[in-house]
Amino acid sequence: MEGSVLSGNPIHLVVLMYEAAVASARDARHEFDAGHRNAGSSAVSKCSRIITQLSLSLNHQKGGEISQNLKRLYAYMQRQLSEAHASYRSDKLAEVERLLSTLLEAWSALASSEASVSALEAASSYISNGDSACAYGDYFAGWENPELAVTF
């Protein structure tokens, strides 16, 4: 799986990251609701790490206003995750899950076979840190803990 992450289409990699973040937020919510604070905390941390990676991958030079809006939205979600973690409140997690699901829907639509090549190229410009390099492939290759690239 690591090879597919490292060589994958940047749009599909974003979709995978959103899917993992949604699942982590959902898991944290369920764990907190069940009274399992440690498991919920682990899931919150995983979701937070994924959102951090999404934020770090933004290309503000090419992404313009969309990139800046995503940055603010990611920061808001991080605050909600912190509050949920500190208070074990699942309502904060539900909001993060909802926001991530909305973004996942948008990125999934771009990744679908009906999406035009120009739309995919335009979306790639928001997340690519290099002219032709896959932003996530380059980023995963530099992770201090490479097993994270294959766990979500």
Rg, nearest Å: 15 Å
Beta-strand proportion: under 5%
The count of strands amounts to 0
Tally the helices.
8
Largest sheet: none
Enter the CATH topology name. Answer: Four Helix Bundle (Hemerythrin (Met), subunit A)
Query: Would you identify the CATH H-level superfamily?
Result: Flagellar protein FliS
Q: Which shape, going by the Cα principal axes? A: globular
Termini gap: 11 Å
| Helix content bin | over 70%
CATH architect. name: Up-down Bundle
Query: Structural class, judged by helices and strands?
Result: mainly alpha
Q: What's the domain count?
A: 1
CATH C-level = Mainly Alpha
> Poorly predicted ranges (pLDDT <50, ≥5 residues)?
128-152
Mean pLDDT comes to 78
Question: How would you describe this structure in keywords?
Answer:
152 residues, mainly alpha, Four Helix Bundle (Hemerythrin (Met), subunit A)
Concise overview:
By secondary structure, the chain is mostly helical. The protein has one domain (2-151): Up-down Bundle (Four Helix Bundle (Hemerythrin (Met), subunit A)).
Task: Describe this structure as you would to a colleague.
The structure is a single chain. The protein has a single domain, classed as Flagellar protein FliS (Four Helix Bundle (Hemerythrin (Met), subunit A)). Helix content is 80%, strand content 0%. It has eight helices and no strands. Helix 3 (37-56) packs antiparallel against helix 4. The radius of gyration is 15 Å and the shape is globular.
